[in-house]
């Protein structure tokens, strides 16, 4: 028969093993990816606040970019995203875990 002390130790031990496996990544999957956003050289000569929105509409990332420049974002949720910057045409992209999605924002084609 188990002693009262060992009855309490077993659940604590199992909880510790589960937490350890979770924190070390055993079976863990990173559900984020990368996107590179270029602002067209023909855009107005000022920095643009480039914003990446997840499919839920929630702002995921943002960064200032000058015309002709590229911003690289990591930690972007996988799936469909919308990229916006001031008066530039918004673009949609699909972020996957295996590659870097690339988007160019321009002033034409909206």
Tell me about this structure.
There is one protein chain. The protein has 110 residues and is of the alpha+beta class. It is 19% helix and 42% strand. It contains one helix and seven strands. The chain has one helix spanning 4-24; strands at 32-39, 48-53, 59-65, 70-77, 79-84, 91-95, 100-105. A four-stranded antiparallel sheet has the order 3-2-5-6, with no helix packed on it. It has a three-stranded mixed sheet with strand order 4-1-7, with no helix packed on it. A hairpin with a 6-residue loop joins strand 5 (79-84) and strand 6. The longest helix is centred in the first third of the chain and has 21 residues, at 4-24. It is elongated. The model has no long low-confidence stretch (mean pLDDT 83).
């Amino acid at each position: 028969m188990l002693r009262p002390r060992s009855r309490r130790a077993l659940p604590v031990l199992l909880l510790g093993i589960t937490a350890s496996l979770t924190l070390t990544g055993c079976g863990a999957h990173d559900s984020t990816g990368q996107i590179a956003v270029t602002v067209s050289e023909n855009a107005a000569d000022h920095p643009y606040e480039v914003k990446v929105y997840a499919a839920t509409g929630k702002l995921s990332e943002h960064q200032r970019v000058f015309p002709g420049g590229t911003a690289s974002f990591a930690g972007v949720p996988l799936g469909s995203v919308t990229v916006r910057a001031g008066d530039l045409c918004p673009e949609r992209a699909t972020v996957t875990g295996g590659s870097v999605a690339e988007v160019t924002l321009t002033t034409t084609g909206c």
